[in-house]
Design a protein that fits this description.
The complex is a heterodimer of chains A (205) and B (225).
Chain A: H1 8-18, H2 22-32, H3 36-52, H4 63-84, H5 116-122, H6 125-132, H7 137-148, H8 153-160, H9 164-188, H10 191-204
Helix pairs in contact in A: 2-3, 2-4, 3-4, 4-8, 7-9, 8-9
Chain B: H1 3-20, H2 29-39, H3 46-49, H4 53-69, H5 85-97, E1 103-104, H6 108-118, E2 135-141, E3 144-153, E4 156-164, E5 174-179, E6 182-188, E7 194-199, E8 203-209, H7 213-222
Antiparallel strand pairs in B: 1-2, 2-3, 3-4, 4-8, 5-6, 6-7, 7-8
Classes of the chains: A mainly alpha (205), B alpha+beta (225).
């Protein structure tokens, strides 16, 4: 599918209004898919749909939210299409961090969260992304829109087609889950061992 | 301690950390190329390609160097986004059967130099490695740099792959083994090849060989951190 049916005005409108958001779409798509080429395909399909529907966009409203809605629907369609295909064994089958959300917050009363910024900023971006990608999809979506992309709650609710209250609770739960899992990554990396050792030696002295 | 206030503070910090992800550069080269096919070239897209030019150049240079040294070797085909053990297994097989372009290295120091020259930014071996280094290479998996070294344990070929931390995942069938104060993620392959992954500060070291777990851990344990 191409934009050959578009006239000059529609092309100009697409390039001026939609195209500047491509990086946001690609970033979002990468948080939703396993592979970069899947994300690129997803965004390309989203942009084609947006291009062909550009006349339905009301200038002055939120283009980022409009495009993200298309991206979400396209992503859902792709997942459904995949589910209809015969089952195959993926060579990529991997579970980087399949941790259950048992509702308890790990280490909330732990002194190591005294300086949360310090601890969270110690993680490289990719580690945060890896953990983000382990969260349930609806939770992940909420965090991507509200926290990463700074979309207001009302717009995020429209994109995800849920009430604002649902977004709020998902965001809150999602942040907690993300924190829990990062905390466990920090433990695995032995970041707290140094603290323990220091504490131990200070007690000894 | 006020749990609600603590939670709000933690929430704010978590939100802030997530917000920082939006400042990560996004390579839109693929989309820019697609747009060019749709609309024709325009001036705006050059800006978004800059970030990828050095790496693409490095790849080309690496390919040229490899071809110059080993004529007739196959080029690495296909790219994958996440280096799962099965994919690393394929890299291992390609290293062993010689289908992955590689340079002969005389020793570890030579391997380090060659990897550094081949791919800028590839993780570099920074410790001692067991056995003699047979060959090395800097390559890309899904555009990410990785380096590998081929060595031997007895008569069994061993591959040591170094890759960025986020490009390693444990796979569905794995066990965690703590030994000598280190954690090894051991993945068992149906074909008999086993992998053990060990996290470092910013990358993973993956050791692969058709060896029993104990022997594999012995090899991995010899790598000096």
């Amino acid at each position: 599918m191409t934009d050959k049916r578009l006239d000059a005005r529609q092309r100009e409108q697409f390039k001026r209004l939609a195209w500047p958001h491509r990086a946001v779409l690609l970033r979002t798509a990468r948080y939703l898919t396993r592979r970069d080429n899947e994300a690129e395909d997803l965004v390309q399909e989203t942009l084609i749909k947006a291009m062909n529907a550009i006349d339905t966009f009301h200038e002055g409203t939120n283009m980022k939210a409009w495009l993200t809605t298309i991206l979400r629907h396209t992503h859902i369609d792709r997942i459904r299409a995949d589910q209809r295909r015969p089952a195959t064994v993926s060579l990529d089958a991997c579970t980087p961090m399949e941790l259950a959300d048992d509702g308890t917050e790990v280490g909330i009363h732990d002194d190591r969260w005294d300086k949360p910024d310090e601890l969270l900023n110690r993680f490289e971006d990719q580690a945060v992304i890896d953990v983000l990608k382990t969260l349930p999809e609806h939770t992940r979506w909420s965090l991507i829109l509200v926290d990463v992309e700074q979309m207001d709650l009302a717009d995020a609710a429209r994109v995800l087609e849920v009430p604002v209250g649902t977004i709020k609770s998902r965001v809150h739960r999602g942040r907690r889950m993300l924190r829990d899992r990062l905390y466990e990554v920090a433990q695995r990396r032995g970041w707290f061992d140094d603290v323990k050792a220091t504490e131990g030696s200070s007690h000894e002295s | 301690m006020n749990p609600d206030r603590d939670r709000d503070r933690l929430d704010e910090a978590t939100s802030q950390r997530l917000r920082q992800l939006a400042s990560m550069p996004v390579d839109t080269t693929c989309l820019d190329q697609w747009k060019q096919t749709q609309f024709g070239p325009d001036d705006g897209q050059a800006v978004h390609r800059v970030a990828w030019l050095p790496w693409r150049s490095a790849t080309s240079i690496a390919a040229a160097l490899v071809i110059a040294v080993l004529i007739g070797v196959m080029s690495l085909s296909g790219t994958r986004a996440v280096a799962a053990p099965l994919e690393l297994g394929q890299v291992h097989e390609q290293v062993i059967d010689g289908s992955l372009p590689a340079l002969a290295a005389t020793d570890l120091a030579d391997a380090k130099r060659r990897i550094e020259a081949l791919v800028d930014g590839a993780p570099r071996p920074d410790g001692d490695y067991p056995g003699s280094v047979r060959c090395c290479c800097g390559e890309a998996l899904a555009g990410e740099r990785l380096a590998f070294i081929k060595t031997r344990y007895g008569q069994t070929p061993v591959t040591i792959i170094l890759m960025r931390g986020h490009h390693a995942c444990a796979g569905n069938e794995h066990e965690m083994i703590d030994e000598q104060g280190r954690r090894f993620v051991v993945h068992h392959d149906r074909a008999g090849v086993q992998a053990t992954l060990t996290p470092r500060q910013d990358h993973w070291v993956c050791v692969m060989a058709a060896l029993p777990t104990d022997d594999l851990l012995k090899v991995a344990g010899q790598i000096v951190f």
